[in-house]
Amino acid sequence: MVPRHLDDAALIAAAQGGDRFALDQLLRRHYDRIHAVCRRIAGSTRDADDACQEALIKIVRSLPRFDGRSSFGTWAYRIATNASLDELRKRQRRPALHVVDEDDRPETVDPTADLYTESFPDQLVLDDALERLPEDLRVAVVMRDVADFDYAEIADALDIPLGTVKSRISRGRAALASDLRLGPARDPDHRPDPGPDQRNQPTSDERPIDST
Amino acid sequence: MNDDLTLLASSYLDGDVTADERALVETDPDALAEVERLRSVRALLGDVEPPAISVREAQLAAALDAWDRLPEAERTGARRDRTPLGIDAAAAAGAASVTAPTPLNNRRRQTSTRWLTGAAAAMVLVLAGGVALQLGSADDSDSSSDAGSGAADSEAFIATERAGNPADAQQAPAAATDDAVGELDTGVADPPPPGENSGLDQLDDLTDLADFASAAVKAPTAPDVATATSETGGDDLTEAETSSADTEFPLCPRLGIDLIVGPAVYVDEPVVVGIDEGRNLAIAYEAATCTEVARVRLP
Description:
The complex is a heterodimer. By secondary structure, chain A is mainly α. Chain A contains nine helices and no strands.
């Protein structure tokens, strides 16, 4: 039995030695943040769940080769970021099945359902704002504000200069703040809503994140 | 408010400012207001509603299941010395990305026979060409991930693992080919073409679709199901190129199909039913155009 107070390094060592319980603890310890990264990057709950599942499996299967050069969290959240980006791209390639008009929507069976969903406007609005945010800005902001990467780690993960990291985070936060109408109104020209054709397109300097 | 002030406020929020910059922010009401605005964004982003406990537990169970299915030698790191970091590690990650374990996998693996070995060998041969393509165009692929960059190696890993011999992934292709090509020819039953509706299962709704797919997967013998990996070599290959050679139905990688269950009629439309193992989905689609008709999670 692995004591619950073991740090990541001890759990990793135990897991790499074949201890399943240690692996379970390790995954549970980081699950919420892995899920949060997926949720914020992949967007919809379903895509986030798929990305999270992919990430967990990648983590497990790559763990025997994890060498501790970065922290487990940094490594795992990178994998989660990659899995989320993969999920986004799959979604972009996936043909839309139907266009549902408002009139086509089935009547709500539970009359209180709307009340329930209306209690979460912030999440829905935030999802929309993130959806509108260009992918490069979204990834940088999520890596900083959700995964808690520092600038250097983001620069390393995205293979971009430190200055670009700062700029993307700043622009991404500002764009979200404007979109969410937080605080003082901003110049509307600053809002980076490039339209449906340009949304979620990675910039030319964006590379997949090396999670090794 | 300008971008410089926003950049300064953002850096301040992250504690990445000099003493002078800090003093500047803290004496400027506009800068402080901007800091608070950005702080609000950070708070909102971090406030992620956790998934349902059942979802979390299912995901963790699937991950542990993947762990259980790793060969003992690999699980305990015995292979680390001869598996360099970098592309191989990415390949392994890629392998995981397209072989998300599900109970389906388990059931299928328990009943896997030599035809699986044959399918694996065939895929390895196809992917051997994909390796060269992939390596040749690696720098051009901005949109590919680490998982994607090692897809070819990953597929070899996957195929060999499905053949039941993952520890010898590097040596498997030739031997597996010799052993199993014939098994493919005789082991994969040819389903009727999608245009012939008579005698096909009629699927009236998503429940029927899920039942049809899961029943086929649960069947004790598997040779009626063609198999292949879904992302063979990324987007460079056409669907025709990635179709199984031994089935009349395309795998349609862009739909994520890993397994073809067989033809059916879904709401009066002839379709082929496939399974996306990674997502645990049953997908009905038009074989001719690879157009998805319906999808549902498998029970």
